[in-house]
Amino acid sequence: MTHSILVSLTAIVVLGILAQWAAWRFGLPSILLLLPLGVLAGPATGFLQPDQLLGPLLLPLVSLSAAIILFEGGLRLRLRELHGIGGVFFQLITVGVLITWVVTVLAARFLLKFPWPLAILLGAILVVTGPTVIGPLLRNVRLGGRVGALLKWEGIVIDPVGAMLAVLVFEGALAGGVSAWATAGFLKTLVVGGVVGVLGAEVLVLLLRRYWIPDYLHNAASLMAVVAIFTGADQLQDQSGLLAVTLMGIVLANQKRVTVKHIIEFKEHLSILLLSALFIVLAARLRRSDLAGLDLSSFLFLALLVVVARPAAVLLSTMRSPLTWQERLYLSCMAPRGIIAAAVSSVFALEMTAAGFEGAGRLVPITFLVIFGTVALYGLSAAMLARRLRLAQPNPQGVFFIGAHPLARELASALQAAGCPVLLADSNWSNVAAARLAGLNAYFGSVLSEQAGEELDLGEMGRLLALTPNDEVNSLACLRFMDFFGRREVYQLPFEPGQKGRREAVSLEQRGRLLFGPERTSAHLQERFGDHPAVKATRLTKEFDYDAFRALHGDSVLPVFLLLDKGEVVVFTWDDQPAPQPGQLLLSLTRPALEGARASARPAEAKALGKA
Length: 612
Hints:
By secondary structure, the chain is α/β, with parallel strands linked by helices. The protein folds into two domains: 2-388, Na+/H+ antiporter like fold, CATH 1.20.1530; 398-608, NAD(P)-binding Rossmann-like Domain (Rossmann fold), CATH 3.40.50.720. Helix content is 61%, strand content 7%. The protein is built from 25 helices and ten strands. It has helices at 2-26, 31-44, 50-54, 58-75, 86-110, 116-125, 131-141, 145-175, 180-209, 218-236, 241-254, 261-284, 288-292, 296-317, 325-332, 339-354, 363-388, 406-417, 429-437, 450-455, 471-485, 522-529, 546-553, 592-599, 603-608, and strands spanning 398-402, 422-426, 442-444, 461-466, 490-492, 513-514, 534-539, 558-563, 569-571, 585-590. Helix 4 (58-75) runs parallel beside helix 11 (241-254), helix 7 packs parallel to helix 17 (363-388) and helix 12 crosses helix 16 (339-354). The longest helix is centred in the first third of the chain and has 31 residues, at 145-175. It is elongated.
């Protein structure tokens, strides 16, 4: 018995993480793989039987996991993102929710033939959108600005709202109608969730600020606080816990008294594991009869949510708003459901069945159909639609330079001449002014400041190169933008030796990938190329390939960038030296004097050279 339980628990983790990896590898929303794997492991083969495996622990574990996921979502919300669009956001979570609810209820009643109580409950469950789906979509599409902020905020804040509405409907169904007592309970949920969540955040901040919790216990203590706040709020008022932990996350993310970055990172990693396990477990709970009961009316119901409910909600919520028609259209075409809808439907399906409501078991398969259908439709079309509406860059290849000194300016100018977007940032005004005079886009200020995070437009940027003479600034810049660009696409100069072991002074987790080679430090580049470096642009051919280029120039040049046929930019690093092929453009650092001397002495290369 113990062996089979161990195998089942291991299978849940393995299947969940494999689905996440495969989704990353093939550029798909993870839910599109998690749900089929859960169905395959559950109703299709009978390998996983979550109700037998977890028994009465199943629903409490689902609720706690959902709370942690929403807390992590709240940690990613910044109030400054709502600047200028706060009114639109409020309309979306009030007017938009009401319209979505009404349309969904009518569709469930007349298409699915649900009795009114179940139709109203299903409508409350499906007003939510999926932050666990929208977050990765926004990162993959690189969608920022007003649309990205609205989708992110709506997806997280609306989830506890949907859960509270479901409680209101459930209590009303048990009472035979929405009574004044049920309405008062809804208002009490708002108050209890709000007060407990804010107090919980303030207590945690106080403990961290007074150093009453050691550093190594920060993550564990924050997890304890989330679980305690969720459970405590739920004990005071049913289903107020989700609102409490969401507000707790928002308050923690927007206070400036203690840093919570390390807590955010821990919760992100934990949320991925919980999300993966939850979808595997909840999908495995489905029965074959549930899947067989999905007929044409079920798919028409899904289509009505996509074609009518969401566009109507967005249209009426954004009237007289500053949003462009492209932004409104994109909002209308983006409302995937996620884990909160799955969790809430599973909980209330059991509650309604226990209360004697006939057909309550249909809530779960319909909800899972909506989750899978909306994720497939919105997830697979998100990038294409964003490109068509010119709201996002499809595959950004731009280079963001930290430092605008002569070497960085020359590299940026060569890339820009080759058709690659560039952006430079420097706190030295003379460097920024020189970059702008050279026709380059340059930002004046420290990239480590909070203001820079609000003002920098990185929509076209695909990678970062930290080229300042200060090793610590380079490492901090890479660390700050690592989440945005990914660890693979943040680069910095090697460290100055200074003293024995200096290169190991900063760990791999705290810096970017190292450029060029171990000795190519800022001081070395300055000594080698001086104040007036030059960049050689060489179009490789079959007659003059990379081997011929190296044989001719030897160590007098330093390859930096390789531009592939489709415009993709590859960076030469310490640990990864690309293999240039004919037809590709090679950008290398050299000295002007050497460049001038060689230009007159190499007719073979002169024929092979080409400007981008």
